Fold this protein.
Amino acid sequence: MMRLLGLLVLVLLAGVFVHASGDLPDRGDPNAPANVHVSPHYLENAGDEVGMPNVVSAVLADYRGYDTLGETVVILTAGIAVAFVLIRRPRRQ
Amino acid sequence: MNERTDSIVLHFIAQYLMAPFILLFGFYVLVFGESGPGGGFQAGAIVGSALVLMRLTEGMEQSRRFLSSRGLLLIACAGVGIYAGVGLLALFAGQPFLDYSYVPNGWVNAFAEREHTSRALGVLGIEIGVFLAVAATLTLIFDYLMERLSDA
């Protein structure tokens, strides 16, 4: 019964997603909301403001430096978590 | 895999042909990340793979004498510290956090062909931090997996 209910919810959710995907902007649409906010500013001014030919690096490390700092901390945290899970503990009697 | 590999061909190819090239390519990707595809994450993954290859062929004991798991953890923490430190130094220069316009660039432009802005140098600094953290963390995860494997 619960399985059937779960399947029903999944099918409904898939229907909602398929229906909503029709309203998504086309791939690479220059008038899409994601492409009219800050992206033009980055593309036009990254060379002058940051002084780097690679706009991707300029956005990643300068404009979005806070985000990249968080990503680096996430990597370190993942390593420490793996160490804690796999570390060899001395057997207690 | 805890001892050095028996095959001298495998050892030679991995240690003297592949690993140096992968390391060199990793540093290239790191340094040229500002003008082409690349950056700290990618370079860290490449150099981490070279370190794992060296551990596989040289044996865990020998390569751990060269670079221990504790040392790797310290390097990873130092990488995050370099990133945060470059960002925090901006505060002492009166700039917002992670604003690299305080980095002195005259000493680089004295012998560089292309003009380097101080922000580009700051980006290189934090990329080095990301690079250290990623490379050390990848090798560290491999180390602990190997340790657990040799237990069983």
Helices of chain B lie at 8-31, 40-58, 60-66, 69-92, 106-109, 118-151. The mean pLDDT of chain B is 88. Residues 8-151 of chain B form one domain. Chain B has one domain: 8-151.
